[in-house]
Amino acid sequence: MMILKTLSIIKPDAVKKGVSGNIISMFESNGFNIVAMKKIHLSKKQAEEFYKEHSARPFYGDLCDFMCSGPVIVQVLERENSIKANRDLMGATNPSESDNGTIRKMYGDSIDNNAVHGSDSEESANREISFFFSDLEIC
Length: 139
Ligand code: ADP
Ligand code: MG
Known about the structure:
By secondary structure, this protein is of the alpha+beta class. It has 7 helices and 4 strands.
């Protein structure tokens, strides 16, 4: 199994609720090495660009408004099989369908306010990491 990087975002709902520390702790206790991290407030344009693969979906406008409604914490996580491991730790997109013990079950309120984002493939991880971080910012 290869050591891979994945991009994680702690979304505005979880930052506002004050549970970002708990979520970061879950990454660390599940074997992820945090190799880059910053708190930023996305502009609407940046949110639209980040989620452009969803631009034709009916929820796209609300999703972009939500993602720029407050600061987010973005991280690059490294671990063996990190992309799938992070998706498993996050849980299903809709918190009501997430397994117990997952981040979305513990901290998500609804499908729109679901606490975290995680890359879904190596290709999207590479795009998403370089969207937020330069090589110099990754330890
Ligand atoms: P994931 O974040 O699990 O990878 P998607 O990439 O399919 O899920 O969708 C991106 C985000 O858009 C989701 O995290 C969620 O916040 C939102 N979203 C997805 N599907 C819906 C939906 N049917 N209604 C409202 N929001 C949605
Ligand atoms: Mg996705």
